[in-house]
Amino acid sequence: MAIATTASIKYKCGHTQATDLSNVPAGRRKAHAYGLGRNRICIRCFSKENATGLKAWQAERTAQSLADAESFENDHHLPPVEGTEKQVPWATRARYELLSSALEVLTVEADEPLTYEAFEERILSPARQITRAGWWIDNNDVDTADVEELVSTAVDDAESPGKTENPF
User: Fold this and answer.
1) CA angle 129–138–75, rounded 5-degree value
2) Whole-Å CA distances, 143 to 10, 27, 49, 70, 123
3) Per-residue pLDDT reduced to its tens digit, 89-124
4) Which residues of 84-96 are buried (b: 16+ CB within 10 A; e: fewer)?
5) How far is the C-alpha of 98 from the C-alpha of 127, rounded, in Å?
6) Which range is least confidently modeled, 6-15, 124-133, 157-166?
7) Spatial distance between the Cα atoms of 19 and 71, rounded to a whole number of angstroms
8) pLDDT mean across residues, the chain
9) Within this chain, do residues 20 and 94 fall inside the same structural domain, yes or no?
10) Which of 35, 69, 87, 127 fits as disulfide partner to 96, beta carbons 3.0 to 4.6 Å?
């Protein structure tokens, strides 16, 4: 008769759970199961504890990202975005990520970097005209090389809807 690969373990949280011990050598399974029960909590309790911690971590990360975005807004004189209660924080972060990335890539990392004044004129100035939250959300994954064309044509689209690069 083979030694069982699963054991019913009573964990220190008080729950009993069938646990797979097939990766533990047969001669050590009983001792391993005893150690797990004395020192660990069950998967259900572990998941519950970590879910709470994960939500707090995500909320903290979101708050920090939004604070960075609002600071970027103030530093570069960007108007607040307009939209629903859910859209505004999302769009604010999306605009920050797109424009800060473009600023870094186009003024520092490019083969022929732009001056800050050129970046201001060619990208930030037209970007200030775009306040609709949905626009920033829709375009949050654009490549930094396309940011200038994107923001400059968005202003044109608002002035003359229907104008596209397609002549037909």
Assistant:
1) 45
2) 53, 57, 39, 22, 14
3) 999 999 999 999 999 999 888 888 889 999 999 999
4) eeebbbbbbbbbb
5) 11
6) 157-166
7) 50
8) 86
9) no
10) 69
Are 75 and 129 in a shared domain? Answer: yes
35 and 66 housed in the same domain: no
H-state helical runs in 76-146: 87-104, 116-119, 125-128, 133-138
Give me the amino acid identity at 158: A
In a domain, 64, yes or no: yes
Q: Given the structure tokens 């003024």, which residue do they identify?
A: 107
Distance separating alpha carbons of residues 70 and 96, to the nearest angstrom? 8
Task: Name the helix (H) or strand (E) containing 110.
Answer: none
Give the count of domains, the chain: 2
> pLDDT tens digit string along 49-85?
777 777 787 888 889 999 999 999 999 999 999 999 9
Model confidence pLDDT, tens digit, residues 93-102: 999 999 999 9
Q: Are residues 72 and 144 in the same domain?
A: yes
Query: Any bridge partners for residue 20, and if so which?
Result: 6
Whether the model pTM is above 0.70: no
Residue type, 102: A
96/63 same-domain check: yes
Closest by CA to 147, choosing from 78, 72, 97, 93, is: 97
β-bridge mates for residue 17, sequence order: 9
Domain around 133: 59-159
